[in-house]
Amino acid sequence: MRETKPKRRVIHPWPLRLTHWLNAVSIVMMIGSGWQIYNASPLFGFTFPPLVTIGQWLGAGIAWHLAFMWLLVINGLAYFIWSAVSGHFRKFFPLSPQAVWRDMVAALTFKLPHDKGVYNAVQKLLYQGVLFAGVVIVISGLAIWKPVQLWFFCDLCSGYFVARYVHFFAMSAIAAFLVVHLLLVAMVPKVLPPMITGGRIEK
Amino acid sequence: MTNFNRRSLLFRALAMGAVSTLPACDYEDPNNPDLADKFLHAMSAWNDRVQEALFNPHTLAPTFRPDQITNPPRFNAFYDISQAPVVDPSSFKLELGGQIQDKTSWTLAALNALPQTAQITRMTCVEGWRVIGEWEGVPLGDFLRRIGADTTCKYVSFKCADGYYSSIDMPSALHPQTILALKFLQQPLTPPFGAPIRLRISTKLGHKNSKSVVQIAVTNIYPGGYWEDQGYNWFSGS
After folding, report:
1. Contacts of B20 in chain A (CB under 8 A)
2. DSSP secondary structure code for residue B83 in this structure
3. Which CATH architecture has domain B35-79+86-230?
């Protein structure tokens, strides 16, 4: 007689975990060095304190930025390809404004259950949003880096001058996502180990 | 929400923030590179190669209308505007060196007698800001061919009256919009803007546009540059 083992599946498959943590490193490096570059010619009436910038002067900030852009882009492409092939992207759909409103209210009144491996509507919206911001930040970044050779990206951003603002606001969106993301992990810490080990749930 | 404790939430958020402790690498002593500096140098060299591959000699930098010109123009150098070098135009000589057949030096009058071209283009600073200006002068490619420069060499280097120096790759030097500018805003160059002649290269960042050039050389030996030797990317293409 054979014993039937309960079927278990991984919450976060290894390609997801790998790209997640590589992305975490690249995002921290890109934002920190980006703030240092911003300080050389601020777009608004403030600069970022040296405590949170990476690279102690403009040259070092640019060097870090243009080094880690490769990790950000290659790792990002790997994530997009894996998500498309594995069907991971399906988890972000369907999404309706009603569902977002319902789950938002539930979350703010602490009534939203956490179902492992399933995204609620607010999560879906945030993930879709941050992925979009990721695409925008790479396109605007390329427009700023190569406004002559990659003129089509520059045109897409309405020129070099506007591209810097687009790049800044995309960074702001990602930074805002990061704040919410880290707060949620701090509130529901049980979601952290599966992002490292993969985690298992009954099918 | 039962076991919810505001203080523990705060501590957890702080702990997550601490994970992102920032590296204190500075690129501040180019002669004594640490491990991070070596990594950054290697990545910068890789980025040079990528930019060389990305450079299309037929892609032109965008040109602008006269009413889009930045007015007043913006001065920028590694010193204050009052310290801009003043070169006597009558005694000025442009020296030539390296892999060039005819190394006879050039007077300003002789340079002015060559065919000129004008452009209204954008100059982008490595700091992020940009200006639009009008420059007029001798296409560098025409000049290099006229003096019998070996255009198979890798580099064209520039030495300036203020001690500044820089260098560019040969394909960028031969780009139709790369000029030895003699005029800025339809007037002869003034000292803060690179009198008597400057390099105007619209496919590269501002710091590659050497001002008050006194010597041009063609070489296969990497010449570096004032900012490049401190950590700025050498190719610095746009």
Report:
1. 28, 32
2. G
3. Alpha-Beta Complex (3.90)
